[in-house]
Design a protein that fits this description.
Helices cover 34% and strands 13% of the residues. It contains 5 helices and 5 strands, in the order E-E-H-E-E-E-H-H-H-H. Helix 2 packs across helix 5. The chain starts with a strand and ends with a helix. 38% of the residues are buried.
Length: 146
């Protein structure tokens, strides 16, 4: 069984029932994807699977075989969302930011010019311990060209 993570093909040697989050962190040493609640409620572990934002703490490796997984490490530094995040100075502690960015990237790939309401709906469920929600919204608006 194989997966494609950030453009590289990996043969999975772990149990097919291992959660994607732990495969990324333990096996591939990609620490940008964070553990939060373990129940898909916080969004800290969000990655893209074939372009769709998913909570990696709830996905078994079996479910992602032969799929393209993108983590925060696979997003170029010059990506509009990452650039906007830096320009707005979104993070405080930064723990949730990789999940927030991945969710924002999915939103903008499906809806390049979202309204504020659409941003709020898309980002609902991605928690921020520091409460930087207004800066997150502003960064998404900046990345969308608003």
């Amino acid at each position: 069984m194989k997966v494609i993570v950030n453009g590289k093909i990996y043969q999975i040697k772990s149990s097919r029932h291992k959660k994607l989050l732990w495969f990324l962190r333990e096996d591939l040493k990609l620490y940008g994807t964070k553990y939060g609640c373990g129940k898909a409620l916080c969004g800290f572990c969000t990655v893209l699977v074939d372009g769709v934002a998913v909570r990696s703490c709830q996905i078994n490796l079996e479910e992602v075989k032969n799929k393209r997984i993108t983590t925060i490490e696979g997003i170029p530094e010059n990506h509009p969302v990452k650039k906007a995040w830096r320009e707005i100075d979104v993070p405080q502690c930064g723990y949730c930011q990789s999940g927030q960015i991945m969710q924002a990237i999915e939103l903008l790939s499906n809806n390049p010019k979202p309204s504020r309401e659409e941003i709020l709906n898309a980002m609902y469920g991605n928690l921020c311990r520091c409460g930087t929600y207004l800066r997150i919204i502003k960064a998404i608006e900046l990345a969308s060209g608003k």
